[in-house]
Write a structure and sequence with these properties.
302 residues, alpha/beta, Rossmann fold, 43% helix, binds NADP nicotinamide-adenine-dinucleotide phosphate
């Protein structure tokens, strides 16, 4: 970055702080994708604050004029941007729609956030990595998505970084929680109907409970953090290991067989090892999220 550019950016950030200074107690929070799985958890975790929950009916993020008008009216301190096109296989079949929502939509949110002096938090994904590193990914490791969903989310990261200096990017993986469509519910439903299931054993992830991630988001936002963080429940597993734990904790007795991904050909390629090291949380001594097994136990108890 050139010195002149740096000065301009610093001034921009200073102005953002001056015009929309974070209050000590109640913050104005706008949440995109508020009806989604993570969005619902965010609404709960931020319930002490003044939350404006935005569904796609309240704001279609693909419209820049609509985003500009809404945030100019609401003037939130923070926008938590959880709206996304999240169908990984669907993104291969309809890439333009994935880019319209994840790239263009995020560009619109970043533009409107900057113009209205809002801080912006964008959720991204482990699928920005190709999974070939053979160790967990740190925040600054080279990205190289292997599918359209990952490329579209990476484009979103690019626009957030370049258009809105006061930002946080939180990469997460394997979300599960109340009110969503996810792996845990699918395995429980299938294990209730069938004696035998086959689940892939050659892709490793860190499953993450939405409410744990939402609570951590509150800590990061309240502490005025900036930059890119990896945030997942601790530990990792293959989808097969995850499924075994889901079935045993649910008290079901379906047998699960490990299989290769090639058993279930799908439109999207997936990284074999997209485990995220929560390295910045560690470096800053922010308590890491509990293990995925403990989070899964809590979810299944409810
Ligand atoms: N799910 C995972 O395993 C996972 C893993 C890593 C990262 N992430 C990231 O985490 C975030 C949350 O994921 P999630 O699983 O909670 O998502 P989700 O349940 O699929 O919800 C996404 C929401 O996006 C909204 N949306 C879609 N198009 C929109 C548009 N044009 N304008 C406004 N809103 C629109 C939808 O709103 P309506 O319902 O109102 O139409 C939907 O509720 C996303 O950024 C995702 O990429 C998810």
């Amino acid at each position: 970055m050139l010195p002149a550019e740096r000065t301009e950016r610093q001034l921009d950030m200073q102005n953002q702080g001056d015009d929309n200074t974070l209050p000590r107690s109640e913050m104005r929070i706008a949440i995109t994708g508020a009806n989604g799985m993570l969005g619902q958890a965010l609404c709960k975790s931020f319930s002490e604050h003044s939350v404006r929950a935005l569904s796609s009916k309240d704001l279609d993020i693909t419209s820049l004029p609509a985003a500009r008008a809404l945030f100019s009216d609401l003037r939130p301190h923070w926008i938590l941007h959880a709206a996304a096109f999240t169908d990984v296989d669907g993104a291969e079949l309809n890439a333009a729609e994935a880019y319209r929502i994840n790239a263009l939509g995020t560009r619109n949110i970043a533009t409107a956030a900057f113009e209205n002096q809002c801080r912006l938090l964008y959720y991204s994904t482990d699928y920005v990595f190709d999974g070939k590193l053979n160790r967990s990914y740190r925040e600054w490791d080279s990205v190289c998505p292997v599918n359209e969903y990952g490329r579209s989310k990476l484009a979103g990261e690019f626009f957030v970084r370049s258009l809105c200096p006061a930002h946080l990017i939180v990469r997460t993986s394997g979300l599960f929680g109340p009110g969503g469509s996810h792996f845990v519910d699918k395995i429980v439903q299938r294990a209730k109907k069938k004696d035998h299931l086959q689940v892939v054993d050659d892709q490793r992830v860190s499953p993450t409970l939405t409410s744990d991630l939402a609570d951590l988001t509150l800590c990061l936002v309240a502490a005025e953090k900036r930059g890119t963080y990896h945030a997942t429940n601790s530990g990792d597993c293959s989808w097969y290991e995850f499924a075994c734990k889901i079935v045993s904790l649910s008290g079901l007795d379906a047998q699960i067989d490990p299989v290769a991904s090639s058993t279930f050909p799908s439109p999207a390629q997936r990284p074999p090892f997209s485990v995220l090291s929560n390295y910045f949380l560690e470096l800053e001594r922010i308590p890491l999220l509990r293990s995925w097994e403990s989070a899964l136990g809590s979810f299944l108890e409810v």
